[in-house]
Every structure is written in C-alpha cells, then in structure tokens.
Amino acid sequence: MSSKLNLHVGVWLLVEALSILSYTVKSSRLRLSLFVGIVATCTYGLMCTTTDFRRYGMGVRGISSRFPMIVLFVSSNILLCDPHKDLRRVGQKGSIHDAPFLSRLWWGLLTWSNPRGINYAHEPTPALPPRPRQTTRTMFVVAQLKSIIWYFLPFDILGIINRANPYYTKDTPIVAGFQHLWWLAGFGFGAMIYTLTSIQYKILAIILVVLRISNPRECPDFYDSPFDAYTVCRMWSKSWHHIEQGLHFACRTRR
C-alpha cells in the first residue's frame, strides 16, 4: 500500500488561486515568490500525493495532469514575461498595471482562464477554429445547444464501447483471434475525450455569453474540424485544441 497521502482538491484550488494572484500583483519580487510557491505546490501534488482513479475517475486524472501545465504556463507568462506589459487584451485602454486591485484581479482571472489568448494581442488567429457566425447572444446559445445534442449521442455510444473494452479493465485478459480488434477501440477513447471536452467547453461558453462576460465572437470552438486531421501533423496543428499556444508567448515576443 502506498504511504503517500491522497491528493486533496484543495491543493489544486490553491495552485489556481496563486496563479491568478501572480497575474494580479504589481511587484516583480512578489510575483517571483508566488512563482516559487506555485512550483513547490505543484511538485508536492505530483510527487508526494496519490490518486484513486477507480474511485474518482477522469476528474482527478485531469487535476493531476493540470499541475505540469500550470508550471509551464507560469514559467512562460510569469517568470519570462511581465504579464502587465506583455499580455494585453484587444482594445484595452491604458496599462492594467495602473488599475485598482480588484480590476487587476478580474483581469488576472480572465487572462489565466484564457490560455489560447483569444481576443489578446498575442492571439494565434491562424491556428484557431473559425469564429462563430451567430451575431446575437440568443442565436449563439441556440446554436451551441443544438451542437451539444449532436455531440452527446456519439459521446454516449463511445462510452458504452470503452466500458466494454477488456483492455480497460483492472486485470487485462488474454485475448485471441477477433478479440484483438479491441485494440482499435483505443481510437474510441480519444474520440470520447474529443466529444466530452467539446460539450464541456460549449456549456461554459453558453454561461459566459449569457452572463455577458464574453461575446459570441470570443468563443470559437475548442477543436477544429476532425476532417482536417488526415495527417498526424495536421491533427496536432489544426484539428486539436491549441491550449499550449500560450506557452510559446515568451519566445515569440523576444525574437
């Protein structure tokens, strides 16, 4: 039995809060201190805790994989950049550095939760999916709800197939003959992730648009068309999400 403690969700929430705060503070020394705290907490979560995948499922797996991504993002946008100078929203008037604390905190929350840099000066526009064609919030919400319904059916079918796959059980059985075709179901797992995260993103986009935090133009799809993924290169550069684009920001600004 492992002697490590179970990963508590509070560790993840603490790291997210420290990351947002690091975008908010003015002092570069305080920002560096927060960076050290973020890296230390992520290291603790990765190296000193364990997770029960069978009990908590993919949710805790997502939290675990979030830690290294957080370290990479704060390294790029906090350690190598000055976020108040280098990360600017399109149409932003003045420097966020001079804004009151609550305004900087809100800006930090919006910036941290927008890893693709949509509607920011560093937005990777050519790599993003097309902007929504709906011009009103109502039309956008209706279109997203229709899309969610279309995504839910394949997601449900793929879930049934994946749960029936003997390779996903605790004790992998010995397979023979046509049972080897279950290997192909591995593609079904990737497709299930595609549909699930698309549904989650669309629900979040609806909430943000209804609350007027974002407008429809700021909510392009999470993925581009799967029909563009006819090569491995195009799958990663075109069809898959581009969350990691923000990691290259520091390098792009210093060329």
SSE layout and pairing:
Layout lengths: L4 E2 L2 H16 L3 H20 L1 E2 L2 H4 L1 H22 L3 H4 L14 H12 L24 H28 L20 H26 L21 H8 L9 H5 L2
Parallel strand pairs: 1-2
Helix pairs in contact: 1-2, 1-4, 1-6, 2-4, 7-8
Organism: Hypholoma sublateritium (strain FD-334 SS-4)
Protein name: Wax synthase domain-containing protein
Keywords: Membrane, Transmembrane, Transmembrane helix
Give a description of the structure:
The protein is mainly alpha-helical. The protein folds into two domains: 5-126; 137-222. It is built from ten helices and two strands, in the order βααβαααααααα. Strands 1-2 form a two-stranded parallel ribbon. Helix 1 packs antiparallel against helix 2 (28-47) and helix 7 (137-164) runs antiparallel to helix 8 (185-210). The protein is globular, with a radius of gyration of 21 Å. The N and C termini lie far apart (50 Å).
Uncertain spans: none
Number of domains: 2
- Spatial shape: globular
Q: Give the helix level as a range of percent.
A: 55-70%
Describe the largest sheet: 2 strands, parallel
The overall pLDDT average reads 82
Number of strands: 2
Q: Hey, roughly how much beta strand do the residues contain?
A: under 5%
Q: What is the succession of H and E elements?
A: EHHEHHHHHHHH
Structural class: mainly alpha
Keywords: Membrane, Transmembrane, Transmembrane helix
Transmembrane segments: 6-25, 32-53, 59-80, 140-161, 181-211
Protein name: Wax synthase domain-containing protein
